[in-house]
Amino acid sequence: MLTRAPGAASLKAEANTTMAALSMDLAAQTTPQKTLPKTKKNKTNSLLMCVPRLYDVDYVINPWMAGNVHAASCELASAQWELLYEAVTRIAEVSLVEPQPGSPDMVFTANAGLLLRERNEVAISSFYHPERQGEETHFRHWFRENGYTILELPRDIPFEGEGDALFSQDGSRLWAGYGMRTSKSSHEILRSAWGIEVVSLELVDPRFYHLDTCFSPLDGGYVMYYPAAFSKSGVKAIEEHYPEDKRIVVEEEDAVRFACNAVNIGRTIILNNVGSGLAIELASLGFEVIQLDLSEFLRAGGAAKCLVMKLRHI
Ligand code: ARG
């Protein structure tokens, strides 16, 4: 079941010019394909998104938001989100959670929680910053209504969902960030509640405050990451698990464009605009690279991956 974005048609009308321009950009990217990639829609993947109708930068809880309070254009954000939505719906089903007043960051559904697919259970986020704690009720409600069981973490143990916890592509191991938002003790809770392997990675650069801003396990056993965002032991853990030929090291220039904040399903990678070097590298590994301008979301410290959360296979 594909849930169409409410008001998508009108959004589209408003956004037509921008979208045409952006689509042309897209086709003109450095990737080898001249037209949009023809990845087959994989109906087994399902994602959660939230229309940016109430999106804004209302407060500062990460360095990207500083200087950007109320500076994002809601119109442009809607047009950019719509292009992302269209790209994503080519390869996955998308469900939508209704945006709620007072929760402008709800659009970043990666922070709703983390799903353990085998159990159909969602570990609901326990946000570090009070500014986002109001989202917990809304996301909890959505997951309950949609048939998921809920794993509650203690309120005083911060955990920010998929933003800080990413399964390896084969699902065998959970990579979990800590040090900025999520606490390391939440990793222990997930490990014992779910009986899974969790590898904790310490984040050390405030610009990369969530794991999904600097680390992306990719199809084919690859990983794309920005080493300077991690402590020495974090880098060591990544290098121990991924052989050199599977590591895609992102330079700072692309890291600050949120290159690692990529949506990857099968051979398709959807991400913010990055430099041609990285785009070519990914394409040479067989990925179809779809670059989108997500500037308005960067103002809040998020890009493609932050705007989606993985749901169960359907
Ligand atoms: N403004 C939001 C915050 O600071 C952005 C969240 C980005 N989400 C993510 N999964 N990295 O919490």
Q: What does this protein look like?
A:
By secondary structure, the chain is of the alpha/beta class. The chain has one domain: L-arginine/glycine Amidinotransferase, Chain A, CATH 3.75.10. Helix content is 28%, strand content 19%. It has helices at 8-27, 74-89, 130-133, 135-145, 184-194, 232-241, 252-255, 276-284, 295-298; strands at residues 46-49, 93-96, 113-116, 121-124, 149-151, 165-167, 173-178, 197-202, 215-218, 222-225, 247-249, 263-265, 268-272, 288-292, 309-310. The chain has a three-stranded mixed sheet, with helices on one face. It has a three-stranded mixed sheet with strand order 3-4-5, with helices on one face. A three-stranded mixed sheet has the order 6-7-8, with helices on both faces. Helix 5 (184-194) links the parallel strand 7 and strand 8 (197-202). Helix 1 (8-27) packs across helix 2. The radius of gyration is 18 Å and the shape is globular. The chain starts with 7 loop residues before the first helix and ends with a strand. Residues 1-39 have low confidence and may be disordered. The structure holds arginine (ARG).
